[in-house]
Design brief:
Shape: globular
Order of helices and strands: EEHEHEEHEEHHEEHHHHH
Organism: Penicillium angulare
Number of helices: 10
Protein name: Enoyl-CoA hydratase AKT3-1
Distance between the termini: 32 Å
Low-confidence stretches: none
Number of strands: 9
CATH superfamily of the largest domain: 2-enoyl-CoA Hydratase, Chain A, domain 1
Radius of gyration: 20 Å
Strand content: 5-15%
Helix content: 25-40%
Number of domains: 2
Family: Belongs to the enoyl-CoA hydratase/isomerase family.
InterPro entries: ClpP/crotonase-like_dom_sf, ECH/Chromodomain_protein, Enoyl-CoA_hydra/iso, Enoyl-CoA_hydra_C
Pfam family, one: ECH_1
CATH architecture of the largest domain: Alpha-Beta Complex
Largest sheet: 6 strands, mixed
CATH topology of the largest domain: 2-enoyl-CoA Hydratase, Chain A, domain 1
């Protein structure tokens, strides 16, 4: 994915398998808030390779689209996601393990590296990859009477979607160990989840509207550049207070030279809504990324063993 990628005039015109994209509020043009809906209600939105490809493509476009500020991810029907579609499965386990890439991980990384924050509107129950793929999101909002769980060990599988990185950092190792070891399914109020869900609502029909209200607020009042850099500082932070001080100082110094800082101060003093326009793909700190990114491409193979070169 490069900055020269053609962006759609309308995300609603995209024909992506097993997901649906919508503008919010309803508009023929692209809006700052984009809704991504897992769209297999007849299968409880069970996860498939095609869904993974569609989600990855959508996030890669939104990542570089300055028109979009926030993503709301939700599910069609009464369930958010029933996990992987076990009728489809994961292949036969043949081939080299070093070349295998789990499909949930591709989605998690696309969401994690997207400059735009995701609010997950978990309008119903979710298990397996239906849980792990939401971990890179900024906010998770759920339904009080739905059930949630990391059921992998009960299916003879290990966790995926980069959950071994995200989950313990979000809720602590002790809670994460309990959830993964038991493979249990619990209500969102269970102490095992800690504060994984930032808001728990009594009525499933409230989840999406509440998420959209929050997304609209963020799109109107928060700098995409400041939000993206701040989230990266937390996820890819330094290893000591002193190193954090140095890194934060460098990024902060960059930010005070940007238009969004001047606009944020002016709008506050003038008691009006801000108009943040800095594009994170262009105006990110020159130190970004300040970490060494791991290459996840498959290992190369020889194309012509008979070559004399």
């Amino acid at each position: 994915m490069t900055p020269s990628t053609n962006l759609p005039a309308s995300y609603e015109s995209l024909n992506l398998t097993h997901i649906k994209l919508s503008h919010h509020p309803a508009s023929p043009q692209v809006t700052p808030v984009i809704i991504i809906t897992l769209n297999r209600p007849e299968k409880h939105n069970a996860f498939t390779p095609q869904m993974a490809d569609s989600l990855t493509k959508a996030y890669q476009m939104i990542h570089i689209d300055p028109r979009v500020k926030v993503v709301v991810l939700t599910g069609a029907g009464k369930m958010f996601c029933a996990g992987s579609d076990l009728d489809v499965g994961f292949g036969d386990g043949k081939g080299k393990a070093v070349d295998f890439r789990d499909i949930g991980g591709r989605v998690a990384l696309a969401m994690h590296r997207c400059h735009k924050p995701t609010i997950v509107a978990m309008n119903g129950s979710a298990v397996g990859v239906g849980m792990t793929m939401t971990l890179p999101a900024a906010i998770r909002i759920c339904h009080e009477n739905s059930k949630y769980g990391f059921v992998f060990t009960r299916r003879g599988l290990t966790i995926e979607s980069c959950a071994s990185y995200f989950l313990p950092r979000l809720i602590g190792f002790s809670r994460a160990m309990h959830l993964i070891t038991t493979g249990g399914v619990y209500p969102p109020s269970s102490p095992y989840f800690g504060d994984l869900f930032t808001t728990i609502l009594p009525d499933a029909t409230q989840v999406l509207p509440h998420s959209l209200e929050l997304a609209q607020n963020l799109s109107e009042n928060v700098s995409s550049l400041a939000s993206s850099m701040s989230r990266a500082l937390m996820w890819e932070g330094a290893e000591s207070p002193e190193a954090a001080h140095l890194l934060e100082s460098r990024v902060f110094h960059h930010m005070i030279g940007q238009r969004d800082y001047k606009e944020g101060v002016a709008s506050f003093l003038e008691k009006r809504k801000p108009c943040f326009e800095s594009d994170p793909t262009i105006m990110s700190s020159p130190h970004y990324p300040w970490w060494s990114e791991v290459a996840i491409g498959r290992e190369p193979t020889a194309s012509n063993l008979n070559s004399k070169l």
